[in-house]
Write a structure and sequence with these properties.
single chain; mainly alpha; 27 helices
Length: about 500
């Protein structure tokens, strides 16, 4: 054994130091070996082929039990298990895994970009999962931990592109919070985001990942940037951007089907959503994802397909979550009602009341309709569904020969002008749309219904896109000035975000 290398001749000394340096480096990074087997496992997991991912992880653990990358991959499996099932029992069953994984990673060497990154990912994934089930306190603490770890990792390893994926998402979401909420978040957890920085980080990653040493992270980054642009930043071009970002992703990815069909269905691209969902990858190797049947039922009902209820019933039978059950039951009822079967619709309302929970907005709306005892107006219902599916000419045909006095209730009168405004806006008839929105605001700004507040919000959006920031500001403030209506917090948050976007322009 060599005990004193400085006594060796110079050449031998340098050889010794070189070998020692290389062996030390190998030892330092050996516990974070994102090798081909781990990359294959990750690709299967991101495509929602979770069982295939598990098999590859088990093989890696047997071959390389010291490889800590498997800890991250197992956390991904838990995350996507909860994501696809939306099951609180799955969440409760799996959440105990977090602490052991954190301890395992903390026992590894800190001299790797994966050390802080993995700790951050574990915290971030559990923060998202907890948020779905209302555990906001612990979720906030995990967000803080993840943000701080990623920020430090980015300073130490600025060329480690996976940092951008997670830092981008966190900045975008935290930065999109209204200023008052953002202030509370900053005060209580010491973290503040920047939406512009977040989207820049994501866009930078999307550009640089292909062909890089970190190209494996492209699919997940594409998933997050599509979500952020559509759901967080409400980018008017989110659908077209999504098509570009998702093109390189394997068509055999069920996660690709989800994000593309979700954005399509919410962007008035009903035919595209239906085609994606009907042709989605299937097989025992994929995670069960009942929510996709619910999405398909919604898209088919919007188009007027007679078999929409089949997919709602499949969702109700297979769902491990209690969310969207009431809404699915109500939509089955709507299909009865639209076919002229009022008795079956009324019976269906009993199922709306007795099944599922009323925690998400759609279920709350469904329960409110079931308790109201009032039949929805068929012209308005047809127009609403056709509009939601992107069938704007069809939606207009249901309303174009109607007059305000044709509707009995104040709610229906407000909805009539509001729907006409929506349809005109979708058909790029901005002046007509604003006229209908103004009428809705004037008639309903002091009512409990949401139509007037959302009309003001939509009018503001039209002006903002036209860069008429003075009028945009007026309508955002009109929205904020309305009191006592449904979903006030949601619309106020969007109006405040709009005012922050346009600032002093």
């Amino acid at each position: 054994m060599i005990r004193n290398p400085q006594h060796l001749p110079n050449m031998k000394k340098y050889i010794f130091l070189l070998i020692f340096s290389l062996s030390s480096t190998q030892f330092t990074f050996a516990s974070f070996d994102f090798n081909e087997n781990c990359k294959n496992a990750y690709q299967h997991i991101i495509a929602l082929r979770l069982e295939e991912g598990k098999k590859l992880i088990d093989a890696e653990k047997k071959a390389n039990p010291e490889n800590a990358i498997t800890v991250l991959l197992e956390n991904y499996i838990d995350f996507f298990t909860i994501f696809t099932s939306e099951s609180k029992s799955d969440f409760n069953r799996l959440k105990a895994n977090k602490d052991a994984r954190i301890k395992r990673i903390e026992s590894e060497s800190k001299n790797s970009p994966y050390y802080r990154f993995i700790l951050a990912e574990i915290n971030l994934q559990w923060a998202i999962s907890r948020g779905r089930f209302g555990d906001y306190f612990t979720s906030a603490r995990e967000i803080k931990n993840a943000f701080n770890l990623l920020t430090e990792n980015n300073k130490l390893y600025p060329n480690f592109l996976p940092n951008n994926k997670s830092l981008g998402v966190m900045n975008a979401i935290l930065g999109a919070l209204p200023s008052n909420v953002r202030g509370l978040v900053k005060t209580f957890i010491g973290v503040s985001g920047d939406s512009n920085k977040g989207i820049r980080l994501l866009e930078d990653a999307i550009k640089k990942l292909p062909g890089s040493a970190h190209a494996i992270w492209y699919d997940e980054t594409a998933f997050y940037i599509c979500f952020v642009q559509f759901d967080i930043l409400t980018d008017a071009n989110a659908y077209s951007k999504m098509l570009s970002y998702m093109r390189p992703v394997d068509d055999k990815s069920l996660l690709k089907t989800y994000i593309m069909s979700y954005v399509a269905s919410r962007s008035g691209k009903g035919n595209e959503a239906i085609n994606l969902l009907l042709n989605r990858p299937k097989g025992v190797q994929y995670a069960s994802y009942p929510y996709l049947d619910y999405l398909l039922g919604v898209a088919k009902l919007n188009r007027g397909d007679g078999d929409a209820s089949t997919y709602f019933r499949t969702y109700i039978s297979n769902a491990k979550s209690t969310n969207y059950i009431k809404d699915a039951q109500l939509r089955i009822g709507w299909q009865f009602l639209l076919s002229g079967n009022v008795d079956a619709y009324r019976k269906q309302l009993n199922l709306v009341k007795s099944t599922g929970t009323a925690e998400v907005d759609r279920d709350k709306q469904a329960l409110a309709e079931a308790n109201s005892g009032t039949l929805p107006d068929l012209f308005l219902l047809n127009a609403r569904l056709a509009y939601d599916g992107g069938f704007y000419d069809k939606a207009l045909r249901f309303l174009e020969n109607k007059k305000l006095e044709d509707f009995r209730t104040e709610k229906d009168k407000l909805e009539f002008t509001y729907r006409l405004g929506q349809i005109a806006e979708a058909q790029n008839k901005s002046t007509i749309a604003i006229g209908y929105y103004d009428e809705t605001i004037e008639r309903g700004e002091n009512t409990k219904f949401y139509f007037s507040a959302n009309a003001a919000l939509r009018a503001a959006g039209i002006y903002e896109r036209a860069k008429d920031f003075n009028n945009a500001r007026i309508y955002y403030r009109k929205c904020l000035g309305m009191r006592g209506h449904e979903y006030k917090d949601i619309f106020d948050n969007r109006a405040n975000a709009g005012l922050e976007r346009i600032g002093k322009k």
